[in-house]
């Protein structure tokens, strides 16, 4: 359930007509709902109830400072994958002590900065990384809290590009090597082992793969305890899917209950790293129909957003709902491909959408709050879209549209 609903024949973002936002900020423009972000985050915290937990929002899903700030104010932790994301969390008022640092190859400078600000822990993905973190921590005379990211080799049953917990994926330490990696970590004087984690993929629509992964992690927890290595937390990563079309992913509540049941009295804090399930349906991408084109085979609606603004349809053939901000019946009723102006055949936002359109109409691409703006680019020297946050009947520009001069400013000609 989100806060983009129709009222009196037009789409609203919370209490603001989307037409008003388009008029004020121009298109294409990302619009986020604060209430939806808050609701999605608190769905996790409520579900966890009194069980010790840390909900670390995956910054990669949407790293806008205002988005991070809304979550920080609710007490969220953050899952980061770069020092850039760390700086964003800090700038947004996030608590470094609630930050977990994932990623397959953290650089020394990134590790040093994370130690300097005192993050919660590093999710370590290889023995090589163990050695690297040990080296940096020793140089700084610090203890680094670590958790090992285990690749449990379970099938997340999602798109192959966003599946991360299979043997053939680059992520994590293989299950078979896990115990020996922990034993090695235990020998390193500047590391403090505190947890275990996994992240098996994104947009999961079933709970079973999570529970299979959890079984494997709990097996490790118990085996490690026998060896005298007591873990304090179990981090199941992110990955809970959202409804883009017909899929009905489990609610955080159902997921959390199943997880808590499995943990069976073990004294473990539960950590989750949700990204998409918090941000995706908290955002839409608003775009304007520029012109309608019929080549005799196909109707195209050429809009002012393109693959550079939202790459998910082109990259994963992902389906996102496209709705008319003010539905009409007096335009051209047809089966449209909604395409952008970029010079690529793959530049589409949706195919075969039955709509009634006129040039100038506004469309909203739903579920665009996660992996939308963050994956945008300047391809074709297009400027990045503006981002706006709606908060009840208020709206705020939270990132201005880029200008061409900003694009040009960081480039240099050769001296002669
Ligand atoms: C390590 C890690 N944690 C969390 C996430 C967030 O995943 P999602 O947005 O599917 O919840 C990702 C992205 O897939 C990830 O790689
Ligand atoms: N970018 C992907 C999700 C990747 C998750 C990051 N590990 C998507 O849009 O679906």
UniProtKB/TrEMBL annotation:
Record-annotated residues binding substrate? Answer: 276, 312, 316, 344, 371
Organism superkingdom? Bacteria
Give every Orn/DAP/Arg decarboxylase 2 N-terminal domain span: 35-280
Where does this protein hold pyridoxal 5'-phosphate?
239, 273-276, 371
What does the record give as the reaction this protein catalyses?
A: meso-2,6-diaminopimelate + H(+) = L-lysine + CO2
Residues modified to N6-(pyridoxal phosphate)lysine? 60
Q: Which residues form the Orn/DAP/Arg decarboxylase 2 C-terminal domain?
A: 29-369
Identify the pathway: Amino-acid biosynthesis; L-lysine biosynthesis via DAP pathway; L-lysine from DL-2,6-diaminopimelate: step 1/1
Cofactors: pyridoxal 5'-phosphate
Q: Cite the entry's keywords alphabetically.
A: Amino-acid biosynthesis, Decarboxylase, Lyase, Lysine biosynthesis, Pyridoxal phosphate
As recorded in UniProt, its EC number(s) are: 4.1.1.20
Which SUPFAM superfamilies does the record associate with it? Answer: Alanine racemase C-terminal domain-like, PLP-binding barrel
Q: What processes does the entry annotate via GO biological process terms? A: lysine biosynthetic process via diaminopimelate
Its recorded name reads Diaminopimelate decarboxylase
> What is the protein's species of origin?
Spartinivicinus marinus
Gene from which this protein is expressed: lysA
């Amino acid at each position: 359930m989100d806060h983009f609903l129709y009222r009196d024949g037009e789409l609203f973002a919370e209490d603001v007509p989307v037409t008003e936002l388009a008029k004020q900020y121009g298109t294409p423009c990302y619009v986020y709902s604060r209430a939806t972000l808050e609701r999605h985050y608190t769905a996790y915290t409520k579900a966890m109830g009194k069980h010790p937990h840390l909900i670390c929002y995956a910054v990669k899903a949407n790293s806008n400072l205002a988005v991070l700030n809304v979550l920080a104010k609710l007490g969220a932790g953050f899952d980061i994958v770069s020092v850039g994301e760390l700086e964003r969390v800090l700038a947004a008022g996030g608590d470094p002590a609630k930050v977990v640092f994932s990623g397959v190859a953290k650089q020394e400078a990134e590790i040093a900065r994370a130690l300097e600000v005192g993050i919660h822990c590093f999710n370590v993905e290889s023995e090589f990384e163990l050695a690297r973190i040990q080296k940096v921590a020793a140089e700084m005379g610090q203890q680094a809290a670590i958790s090992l990211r285990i690749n449990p080799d379970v099938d997340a049953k999602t798109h192959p590009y966003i599946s991360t917990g299979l043997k053939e994926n680059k992520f994590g330490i293989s299950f078979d090597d896990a115990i020996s990696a922990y034993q090695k970590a235990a020998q390193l004087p500047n590391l403090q082992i505190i947890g275990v984690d996994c992240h098996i993929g994104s947009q999961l629509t079933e709970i079973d793969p999570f529970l299979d992964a959890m079984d494997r992690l709990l097996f490790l927890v118990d085996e490690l305890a026998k060896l005298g290595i007591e873990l304090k937390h179990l981090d199941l990563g992110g990955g809970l899917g959202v409804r883009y079309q017909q899929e009905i992913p489990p609610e955080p509540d159902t997921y959390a209950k199943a997880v808590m049941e499995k943990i069976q009295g073990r004294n473990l804090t539960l950590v989750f790293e949700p990204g998409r399930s918090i941000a995706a349906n908290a955002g839409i991408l608003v775009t304007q129909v520029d012109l309608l084109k019929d080549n005799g085979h196909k109707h195209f609606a050429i809009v002012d957003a393109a693959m550079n603004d939202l790459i998910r349809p082109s990259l994963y053939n992902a389906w996102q709902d496209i709705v008319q901000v003010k539905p009409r019946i007096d335009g051209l009723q047809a089966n449209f491909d909604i395409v952008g102006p970029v010079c690529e055949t793959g530049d589409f936002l949706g195919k075969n959408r039955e709509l009634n359109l006129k040039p100038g109409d506004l469309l909203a691409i739903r579920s665009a709050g996660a992996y939308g703006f963050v994956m945008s680019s300047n391809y074709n020297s297009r400027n990045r879209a503006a981002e706006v946050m709606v908060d009840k009947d208020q709206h705020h520009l939270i990132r201005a549209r880029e200008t061409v001069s900003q694009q040009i400013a960081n480039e240099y000609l050769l001296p002669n």
